[in-house]
Specification:
mainly alpha, 9 helices
Amino acid sequence: MSYTTPRSDDPSPLPIGRPIARPLPGSAEPAERADAARNRALLLDAAQQLVREHGVAGLTMDALAKRAGVGKGTIFRRFGNRTGLMLALLDHSEQKFQTAFMFGPGPLGPEAAPVDRLIAFGRTRLLDIEVEGDLHRAAEQNGHFAGGPYALHRAHVLLLLRAAGVTGELGLIADTLLATLSAALVIHQIEVLGYRRERIGDNWEWLVRRVVPPVRQVE
């Protein structure tokens, strides 16, 4: 997966992306590369729909080929095998989340107030975990805190905490908040304890509003 990890001393969120190669003048590669990237994104959108409708178990190479209207060989050439497809899907999901956070509309995007963005951040992650939980849980088991999505999420939360006027050990506060969004914990709460995602989201909002100081009204 191609996550750009921010430095530990840099609170600004960084976009996920791949380096862009520069072809020779007159080459047809840019159009071909753009077409390949667009087709890949369409396949991953179809895969995400399958997961949301039928769970991770419903995402097979055959099912994806049928949903996308392509041959199964195309899927194998793009992703290698089902594991490669799963990793690509997680990367795709994270990229869409990052784009929505940095450039999208409120309440998640930058036009909204910091506290509203922080609440939307948690609720959006909970939705991702509910429909793609196995993927997120697997990602947590391999260097979860060292980089990748966690480092980006932590940078986002730090940015919003500062913007909302929170003081104290912001790094620890961010880690504490993000701990409640652990895929393993959320899946346990939903599947074992019987909580609905909406109720877990309400609890996230309750925590956020107790961490963020209330806005003082100007008299």
